[in-house]
Design a protein that fits this description.
InterPro entries: Cro/C1-type_HTH, DUF5753, Lambda_DNA-bd_dom_sf. This is Helix-turn-helix transcriptional regulator. The chain is of the alpha/beta class. It contains twelve helices and seven strands. The protein is globular and about 65 Å long.
Length: about 280
């Protein structure tokens, strides 16, 4: 029986177009999927799922494809668009705002904010939250989260201001080694030209944002949106009064949080406990 490759639908999304371009150039080069897998050092099944848009595009693959096919950045440019499509639809509008934002303000009560997570911390967290997921599915979700970190780099990096409850630095996600690495990353970002991190101490008690997480995204044109997240639920607020209410609550927390240098000392103390 002759093998028939799965049909492609390049008009469905950028990710589908990416896969169809990958197959088109591969076929034009007279190359089998196994042959391409050997060149790129990826598994044949994995590349097959990327061609049919069943799997997300891993970071770093696009540059390898451009080198293999001599496409002068074609796949790298497509990836910049396609990487936003690997997330569930309900988050896509939020991610579109995040991609355009110049300033992100984060409040987190129990976990390190996604933009500041290390790969190992994110993997441990995602594995704990999806016990039925396969390792491949976990890795796809990790890659999706890490792709968002590109906004922290480059010539015009995103400005991030994060306020974290003290429980964030004491809850050991992934064990002492993983947590120590995560705390080291937070410590390095506590007070830089593009990032500020403050810890809200336990002694502060209850407040307006207790019980969830909040992200405020400021995009060019003095426009801000708010995103509140709980367990498996999230809501994007765009109405001016709703955003202003949440901005006021965030500003109150900033007033009660430890200063960056005090926060850094507390983070280092938590690191010492992990390393003991």
């Amino acid at each position: 029986m002759t093998f028939q490759p799965k049909p492609l639908n390049p008009n469905r999304s950028v990710r589908h177009f990416y896969g169809s371009e990958m197959r088109r150039l591969r076929v034009e080069a007279g190359m089998s999927l196994a042959g391409l897998a050997e060149i790129l050092k990826y598994s044949k099944p994995h590349l097959g799922r990327i061609e049919t848009a069943e799997s997300m595009i891993p970071e770093g693959l696009s540059e390898k494809l451009d080198a293999a096919f001599g496409t002068d950045g074609h796949f790298t440019r497509l990836y910049e668009l396609a990487r936003h499509e690997v997330h569930p639809d309900k988050y896509r509008r939020y991610l579109n705002f995040e991609a355009r934002a110049e300033v992100v303000q984060e409040w987190s009560e129990s976990l390190v904010p996604g933009l500041l997570q290390t790969e190992a911390y994110a993997r441990a967290l995602l594995r704990a939250g999806a016990s039925a997921a396969t390792e491949e599915e976990i890795e796809q979700r990790v890659a999706a989260r890490m792709s968002r970190h590109q906004r922290l780099l480059g010539g015009k990096p995103l400005h991030v201001w994060a306020i974290c409850d003290e429980s964030v630095i004491w809850r050991q996600i992934g064990g002492p080694e993983v947590m120590s690495e995560q705390l080291a990353k937070l410590s390095a970002l506590v007070d830089t030209p593009n990032s500020k991190i403050q810890i809200l101490p336990f002694r502060h008690g209850a407040h307006r944002l207790s019980g969830g997480a909040l992200t405020l995204l400021s995009v060019p044109g003095s426009y801000t949106v708010a995103y509140e997240e709980g367990i498996d639920v999230g809501h994007l607020y765009e109405e001016l009064w709703s955003v202003q209410e949440r901005q006021r609550a965030y500003d109150e927390l900033r007033a009660y949080a430890l200063r960056p240098e005090e926060s850094a000392r507390l983070i280092r103390t938590a690191m010492e406990v992990c390393e003991a």
